[in-house]
Amino acid sequence: MCAGNNLAENNRPKFLLLTSSLLIDRIFLYTNFVESLKQSGDVTIWAASMGHDKNSSIWEKTNAKVEILPEVLPIREFPHNYLRRLNEFVWDYRLRLPSRISMMRHVRNKQHTNLLRALKIPAWFLALLRAESLLENNLEKLLLTYPRSAEAEKRLRELQPSVIITTGPFQFEQPGIFAAAKKLGIPTLAFVPSWDNITTKNRMVFKYDGYIVWSEQLKKELHEIYPYTRNQPVYVVGAPQYDILLQNRFYLARAEFCRQQNLQPDLPLIVYSLGSPNFLKEHHGAIDLAARIVRGELGKVQMLVRPHPIHDNAELEDDFEKFAPSVRLQRTPNAGRCLNERSQDEAQITEWVNTFRHADVVVNLSSTVTVDAAFFNRPVVNLDFDSQPGASDQKLINDINHRWNHFKPVAESGGVWLVRNFDETANAVRNYLKNPNLHKAKRRWILEYVCGHLDGKSGERMARAAGEFAELIHSGEKAGNKIELACPIAAQQ
């Protein structure tokens, strides 16, 4: 019998939640998701950030059993990883997703070795034969036979969860745990953690038993790009992490927030939010705007530069120190720590919420903070140009704003001010400071398009979805049909 099918007959379901990112930690720690889920069953969390002393006190507040994520080994390079790359190329040639083709052309082609590039020839041929599903199904079988986490298998046998909720199906660690769960026949529910993942990330080779997404748009994309999901439960719940922005307990008065950030509460505040420095070199745009502020070109204003909380390593201090006090660099206690060791305490969450709540204008380059700002009806200036010297990524940025599946509708919605150079950036900021309600209706459209639900109860809906999924698995029914959960390896032993 598959271990996962042995759902409690007289006992409550056991839910196992996986997290390997601080953006998911936010959901588990600061929304109603975990507390709501505990009404349906017992909850255990495996968190990558748990095994570090600085985070232990953070996780204590969940009132759930929290353990460190098991160790997961890398995929074997040959043949496993090369076949995975081949599979991605085949699907890229078949689907021709603008986001993926753009990334291949502008980024990945420059990074790939000659051996990886050579895979494109058989990939093109397999795509021509429409063999993508056959390849992926066999690749999944191969990857399931390669154990990446003996520790996960051992602990899963001991815990015997009714359902595993993975929140990183596109990440490195959690698919390795999924393979152990699949071996034991434990049902898995995959949460797609962001609105860009389906169209920009590498393939989900493994097939989960159900899915949770933010919006109807994401459900549509999931069905188009992963056709087999049309026969699986897919729950639309909203964006749980944004529930936090609607919680008054995290709100600070403007004077207190400005005091904490060494800002002046009576001056307009421009927030310049940066993305990952591993992708685009965005800080040059912030440096130019900082220099203009110091020269007085925008009047009496101030600017707060916010590094990406996952990627900040305190490397920008020297760049912005000279612009003080008109310009401040926001600092994070996570600077310098490994990515999956990072989490956020209540003080950091409060800082995140109030950074956008008290911003008068937000400047960024095509990132999710556009949504953060829109929740507080803050105007957004969106760069449509490469601010680094030489502008070597200009074509990529053009594609992000005007071709990429997830961001093109937002960039061209009229809810953000697209700017093509430094002068236009300064002009857009000045105009928004004078008329902050400009484009207000379109900003609301962005929220509805990206998030779907905007009532602050997405975490509760996510918990209900997990509870319904557990009941569905337990009853063995799906629209009147029995759900078959595969145990491909266990059956061989």
List the defining traits of the structure above.
493 residues; Rossmann fold; globular; 3 domains
Provide a quick synopsis of the model.
With 493 residues, this protein is of the alpha/beta class.
Walk me through the structure.
The protein is globular. The longest helix is centred in the N-terminal third of the chain and has 19 residues, at 77-95. It has 22 helices and 13 strands. 43% of the residues lie in helices and 11% in strands. It folds into three domains: 3-73 and 148-239 and 455-492, Rossmann fold (3-Layer(aba) Sandwich), CATH 3.40.50; 77-140, no CATH class; 249-451, 3-Layer(aba) Sandwich (Rossmann fold). Mean pLDDT is 92; it is low at 3-9, 477-482 and 484-493. It is of the alpha/beta class. Strand 5, helix 11 and strand 6 (210-213) form a beta-alpha-beta unit. Strands 3-2-1-4-5-6-7 form a seven-stranded parallel beta sheet, with helices on both faces. A six-stranded parallel beta sheet has the order 10-9-8-11-12-13, with helices on both faces. Helix 4 packs across helix 7 (120-128), helix 5 (98-111) packs antiparallel against helix 18 (394-402) and helix 9 packs across helix 10.
Briefly note the structural class of the backbone: alpha/beta
CATH architectural category of the largest domain: 3-Layer(aba) Sandwich
Query: What is the CATH domain class of the largest domain?
Result: Alpha Beta
- Pick out the low-confidence regions: 3-9, 477-482, 484-493
Output mean pLDDT. 92
Distance between the termini: 11 Å
> How would you sum up the global shape?
globular
Q: Tell me the number of structural domains.
A: 3
The tally of strands reads 13
The number of helical segments is: 22
- Strand order of the main beta sheet, please? 3-2-1-4-5-6-7
Our Rg estimate from Cα atoms comes to 23 Å
